[in-house]
Amino acid sequence: MAYDAGWREGKRLFKDGGKGAGVREVVWGGCVRRSLTAKPQNVVEKDRGAWVMGCKQAVGTGTERHPPTRPVTRRAPDADLLARFRSWAGANGAKQPALHVDQVILVHLGARDYDVELATTYTDRSAKAAVKRLADVFVTWWDGDDGDNATAWNLIVTTEKGTRLSTRSL
After folding, report:
1. What angle do CA 3, 103, 82 make, to 5 degrees?
2. What is the pLDDT of residues 94-120, one digit of tens each?
3. Tens digit of each residue's pLDDT (9 = 90 or more) over 120-151
């Protein structure tokens, strides 16, 4: 269902934007970024990678559909990134915000695209300024792409239970 929703959106984008839509949505990460707000949210969130795949396939001039046979999104905790981030934050006056990060998770949305998710001790009642400060600190530390032949597009800050608090471009 997520793939189909992405396909429909990709076809709409191609119809509205022509061949240029392919560049915007595939090369510049438009499909990945759109997946964060794509509807229906309950369907897309089950497999954002499938949504991205559908969107990317549909913005081209071809009409062949290649839906996945299994979930595309893969979540992988990365303890090394968490340790490196905390070390940098401590040395650069940002120890406090970094202490709120319990886990860094790479959310693989296919073969080459991924998002970075920070599972934090923040709740949906936490101060927005504190969440923004953490995102700012992490983006400053990230300063580029640590992926091997892949692109990190978004930073997502969540509660421990996975509720999204903030998103930022990387």
Report:
1. 115
2. 999 999 999 999 999 999 999 999 999
3. 999 999 999 999 999 999 999 997 665 567 88
Q: What are phi and psi of 113, to 5 degrees?
A: -110, 140
Give residues with Cβ within 8 angstroms of 166, minimum separation 6. 128, 131, 132, 135, 155, 156, 157
Closest CA to 97 of 140, 146, 153: 140
| Contacts for 62 with CB less than 8 Å, ≥ 6 apart | none
DSSP 156: E
User: Residue 101 phi/psi, 5° resolution?
Assistant: -90, 120
In degrees rounded to 5, what are phi and psi of residue 104?
-105, 125
Tokens of residue 135, six digits? 């995102």
pTM over 0.85: yes
Pairing of strands 164-169, 151-158: antiparallel
Instruction: For residue 76, list its beta bridge partners.
Output: 106
**What ranges in the chain are assigned the alpha helix state H?**
2-17, 19-22, 30-35, 41-44, 48-58, 79-91, 95-99, 128-142
Element (H, E) at 60: none
